[in-house]
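#lab-general

N.A. 3:47 PM
ok so I finally got the sequence cleaned up, no stray characters, all 538 residues accounted for. can someone with queue access submit it? mine expired

B.Y. 3:52 PM
send it over

N.A. 3:53 PM
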Amino acid sequence: MKAISLWAAALAVSITLSGCGGDAAAPAPAVPLPPPVVTPPVTPPVVPPVVEPPVVIPPDPVVPVPPVVVVPPPPRDLMHWLQWSVCEKPRTGLGPAGVKYPDRQGTLNDEKTFLRGWINDAYLWYDEVPATIKPADYATAIDYFNVLKTPQLTASGRARDRYHFTYDSARYDALSTQGVDLGYGVLWSRNAAPNLPRTWLAATVEPGSPAFLAGLRRGDMLLTVDDIDFVNAASVDEVARINAGLFPTRADEAHRFTLRRKDDTFMVNMTSAKVSADPVTNTKVIDTPSGKVGYMTFSSHNAVSELELIEAVTTLKGAAIDDLVLDVRYNGGGLLYIASELAYMLTGPIPTSGKVFEKPIYNNKIGAKAPYAFRSVAWGFLAPRPAAPGRVLPFLNLQRVFLLTTPGTCSASESIINSLRGVDIEVILIGGETCGKPYAFTPMANCGTTYFAIEFKGVNEKGYGDYADGFAPTCKVADDMGKELGDPSERLFKTALGYIAGNACPAQPSHLREQSQPMQLVRPEVMEISVYPPSMRP
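B.Y. 4:20 PM
back already:
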């Protein structure tokens, strides 16, 4: 309650100050002076000559214009903050940043009251949330939150809000600040349809992870999980056992898997662990007849990536590259400040100085806010190896950039594309259509759960932000699971090199043009977002 009191006091002070003007003391009353003595002129004044008045043509009658009625925005009710961190089951001890948890004893109703007030204040479509939803109808705060969103559909019949979700706060903090998540260290790509038979391929395998040590590699196909037919199993019991094996809930869970690599089938045992993923890898320079081409794989806009991106760009700058291929095919997004820093590092100050990286469009209660500029200095996010806050960023001075994309390229990654195009940098997309998420969040942690509700839509320097259906590729190419990322012969990378050489999309063999089975990544929603630094850290 002390934090709320201080906040309320600060608000009261700001209101008091904003209502004052000038000095605190009232000015002394003026002393009246006697009228000045006017001495009459000695000679009569000069009389100006008579000038005939000009002929004035009366203007046309003015049609009165009705006054513009300005509708004030709805008032903001901030009383829900009184229920922030008032929990049914308050946490004790220290949080991940070494700060004591702010939780206080309360009730489930306190948690629901906070959520309803927060949604009503900050949610982009707050006025579309049904008023008929009753908190008492939901057994948990998360169940209640899940329905506090717009039911409206887009013109294509899709749900307007497809990005409303929650995540365990401790797990989210570990993922966003340290790049750590629980599992085996393999990212799966699956067939989007039909549900059966299932086709799951290993898209990436983190070096040093349980999956890597067990021998898994990119392109391996999953056949069984704990001796259950993964491809065709349909019963509730079998699916539950498969999910238990694929998505462990704690470390040190052992499970057995069968996979296929080309014509070979093999079995592995894997034990779940907390896996640290490296977000920036494969930084290299390739000499081509067209010049030096830089490449790097960028998989997540998390805090760990800030310093790694600075180091990678410094390496590429030292090599004096002529073009860059940025592989974000599996980058679901993350911190928008990281995206802003990287966009600046790709192009430098000439096209970005004084320009908008992204302007947030909030609901009508919050109204307009200052746009976010291209960041030329590091923010200094908390990470195992942090960048120094305020560090001047290196830059490459590129006038065009090649991005390798798939439907797994989302949110903050799409902000890089949109922001650079907003300042007339040529962005050439090789691969597939991006996922289409022009929305962003400020994560809200409360009582051990971090809530994600869309708060704003982002637009670029030119005011464009309508890419809910994704960005179309310049050269459409199917993902190549048969080659490792960063291999110049891998299909997407090879196509980018071909474009650089010929300034056009190289022709694709007919069998590749017909390869159209849609695939999508298997990962939690929290890895496909755009976020600005949290307004509160528990």
